[in-house]
C-alpha cells in the first residue's frame, strides 16, 4: 500500500486488512528496491500460500484518513499546479496563480489550503525539495548548484529546509545515496559469486 498520508490508525487498518507492505510517499530508492524484492519473493512462494483477508468482514477505513479532496477544487486549481510544476525554478507568486485560476488571492489561498492541506508556499517548497532530492543523485552536481537549479536563492536556507523536510542535510542525503549504491553493488557481487 502506498500513501501520502501517514497515521498509526491507517497503518493498523492496513495490516489488519491484509496489506503486505505499507509505504509512505515520497519513497527513497532503497524503499523501491525493498518493494521489488518483496514482490519477487512473493512470486517465488506463490500468492496462494499467503493467508487472505476475510472479505466478508466489514472493516472501515479509520475516520482520520477518510477524506476526499473536492474534485471541483482540484479542477479549479489545475492551471495553478500545472504552471507551478513547469515554473517552480522561477519566482512564483500567489497573485500569478490566482490570476491563472481566475479567482482572487484570498479565495485561491483558502481553496489551496483546503484542497492540499498545506499553504501554497509550503507546497512550492516541498515540490522544490523533492526535485532537489532527485537532482542530488547526480554526484557531479554541487549542492549549491542544485539549490539554485530548483529555485532557492540561498544555499544555507535550502540546506535548512532540506534537513527539516527530509531529516538529513543535503550532503548527508547524498552520502546515504552513495552508501546505498555501494552496498547494492557489493550485494550484487556477492550474489553473482554464490
Automatic annotation (TrEMBL):
Stored Gene3D superfamilies: Homeodomain-like (1.10.10.60)
Keywords: DNA-binding, Transcription, Transcription regulation
Residue stretches making up the HTH araC/xylS-type domain: 78-176
Domain of life the protein comes from: Bacteria
One Pfam family per UniProt: HTH_18
Name of this protein: Helix-turn-helix transcriptional regulator
Species of provenance: Amphritea atlantica
Amino acid at each position: 500500500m502506498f500513501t501520502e498520508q501517514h497515521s498509526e490508525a491507517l497503518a493498523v487498518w492496513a495490516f489488519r486488512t491484509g496489506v503486505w507492505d505499507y509505504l509512505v510517499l515520497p519513497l527513497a530508492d532503497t524503499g523501491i528496491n525493498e518493494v521489488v524484492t518483496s514482490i519477487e519473493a512473493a512470486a517465488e512462494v506463490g500468492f496462494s500460500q499467503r493467508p487472505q483477508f476475510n472479505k466478508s468482514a466489514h472493516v472501515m477505513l479509520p475516520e482520520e484518513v477518510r477524506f476526499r479532496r473536492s474534485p471541483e477544487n482540484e479542477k479549479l486549481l489545475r492551471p495553478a499546479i500545472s504552471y507551478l510544476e513547469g515554473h517552480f525554478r522561477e519566482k512564483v507568486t500567489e497573485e500569478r496563480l490566482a490570476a491563472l485560476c481566475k479567482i482572487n488571492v484570498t479565495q485561491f489561498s483558502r481553496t489551496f489550503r483546503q484542497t492540499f492541506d498545506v499553504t501554497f508556499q509550503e507546497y512550492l517548497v516541498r515540490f522544490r525539495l523533492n526535485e532537489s532530492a532527485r537532482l542530488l543523485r547526480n554526484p557531479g552536481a554541487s549542492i549549491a548548484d542544485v539549490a539554485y537549479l530548483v529555485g532557492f536563492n540561498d544555499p544555507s536556507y535550502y540546506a535548512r529546509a532540506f534537513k527539516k523536510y527530509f531529516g538529513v542535510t543535503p550532503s548527508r542525503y547524498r552520502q546515504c545515496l552513495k552508501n546505498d549504491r555501494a552496498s547494492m553493488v557489493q550485494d550484487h557481487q556477492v550474489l553473482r559469486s554464490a
